[in-house]
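Students often ask why we bother encoding 3D structure as a string. The short answer is that it lets us treat folding as translation between two languages. Here is a chain of 260 residues written in the first language.
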Amino acid sequence: MVTYCGGMDEVFRALADPTRRSLLDELFGQDGQTLSALEERLPMTRFGVMKHLRVLEEAGLVVTKKRGREKLHFLNPVPIRLVHDRWVSKYAEPWAATLSGLKRSLEEETMEKVFEIYIKTTPEQLWEAITDSEMRQKYTFGVGVDSDWSPGSPYRAVHPGAGIAISEGENLEVDPPRRLVQSFNALWGDDVKSEGTSRVTWEIEQVEDSCRLTVTHDQLREGANEQLFGGWPMILSGLKTLLESGELLTTPGSLRYASG
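And here it is in the second language, the structure alphabet:
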């Protein structure tokens, strides 16, 4: 099974080094940092920081995005979620998924979250899994999505069994099977409704026999409620599992609305 560019071994190797864990902790505290900013926080040369960041990028634990002349570094918790789903959830109590001293809660004050995962599938199959309501229900806690997927059209995510409206918004850009940009309004509780509108961008890029899926959740207010973005690692892990094995995740939270 294809996991990331280097595989699960690279994730464990990257997490084994205390300096690299410190870099991840820094990105937990403040996401989207430049190399210069990270260099100031660690007692080592710029070259040393670059070497450690390269290992983290190869393991998929750090994702970079260009902003003008700057390159920003973002923590990508999806590989840690995959390690948890495969190795930890069988033996640990629910929500005891702390690995290598990394915090489970995403409390950082930030305007943008970036999640990346590699899935052995085609762009067309991945696009279908994102836009087909029945397939969405299999990896988004039973929540389907209703839309005609035309640019400017509305969408609404609803759990049919629980009768709960989860989110709604507008399809701002629709470019199958490469890019989908949506406004996002959370509806599942008053605490998240008050957060207002944010934005979710799905980007699909074919890499040999797999696809790199990057999900960017941005336009979040500083200090936004972590419920808005905290579920992405489990959702993307479930999507990967479904497309690569046809199986469903049954880890804690995967049946979040099932009893509603």
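Translate back mentally: The beta strands are 62-67, 70-75, 112-119, 144-146, 154-159, 164-175, 179-186, 197-207, 210-218. Keep this in mind for the problem set.
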